Amino acid sequence: MERINLLLRSSLYRDYLGKVEEKEKDRVFCKHGFNHSMEVARLCWIFLLENGLTYARDVVYAAALLHDLGRCEEDNATVAAACHALRSARLAEPLLAEAGYSLPERKLITDAIAEHRKGEDEVFTSHLSYFLRRADKYSRLCGDCPAAAACYKKDEMPQRSRLLY
Ligand SMILES: [Fe+2]
Fold it and tell me: By the 8 A CB rule, do 96 and 1 touch?
């Protein structure tokens, strides 16, 4: 996990993460900071193991830790038209290079990040893409959420009313 620890120490990564957390400090709905990313990382790792799929753990964690980073640019008019998944993939590329990920690994990870907002029945370029998206949904435990009644996404969350993982 040395590359993950390099990523976590990156000043650029910490800057982006700080911007996401600052933007969402008054948000009543699901947040997209470090704790969410770690929940996604561990769930994605479990799903891959359950399905007998072999990925390096630091590849899986990198995809999860970076998948929502583009939310730091949400209000930037020049990128407002693109969804945060594509922005996250773009921001992830140099961070992954800096942490020592190879070109094929960076392509795998950034494709997974770019695809994490796809629908369940769409085509995914890898199992990592599919299970990253799945982990993102399973990470939300709506039962204790005070904003659940007003949330338009609640019905997409498999653990909205019962704990599975
Ligand atoms: Fe997410």
Answer: no
Tens-digit pLDDT profile for residues 75-97:
655 554 458 899 999 999 999 99
End-to-end CA distance of the chain: 23
Residue 124: C-alpha distances to residues 36, 41, 119, 161, 165 (Å): 22, 18, 10, 27, 23
Domain covering 2-156, topology: Hypothetical protein af1432 (1.10.3210)
For ligand 1, the distance from its centroid to the CA atom of residue 7, given in whole angstroms, is: 18
Distance 115 CA to ligand 1 centre (A): 12
Render pLDDT for 47-65 as a digit per residue (tens, 0 to 9). 999 999 999 999 999 999 9
From the CA of 84, how far away is ligand 1's center (Å)? 10
Kindly list the domain boundaries of the chain, sorted by start residue.
Answer: 2-156
Q: Half-sphere exposure of 21 toward its Cβ, with a 13 Å CA cutoff?
A: 11
CA 103 to ligand 1 centroid distance, Å: 24
